[in-house]
Design a protein that fits this description.
Elements: H1 2-8, H2 11-14, H3 21-41, H4 50-63
Helix pairs in contact: 1-3
Subunit structure: Self-associates forming complexes of several hundred monomers.
Domain Myb/SANT-like DNA-binding: 3-63
Organism: Petrolisthes cinctipes (Flat porcelain crab)
Length: 66
Amino acid sequence: MALLNLIKERDSIVNNKSTAPGIIEAKKRTWEEIVLKFNALNPDQQPRSSKQLKRSYDHVKRKCLS
């Protein structure tokens, strides 16, 4: 749920389908912000990478949000 809440705040960037260079860079920065906040909210867990969090989000989107 923490991941979904962090993404919800940045939904317009995370779910933007554009491939424009500015959007791609904004997505990278946004995912890094999400990683930092997610790891700060879960200090007792092993730190997650942006790749791991993206995969988790994609899985949740496919299973629950469709």
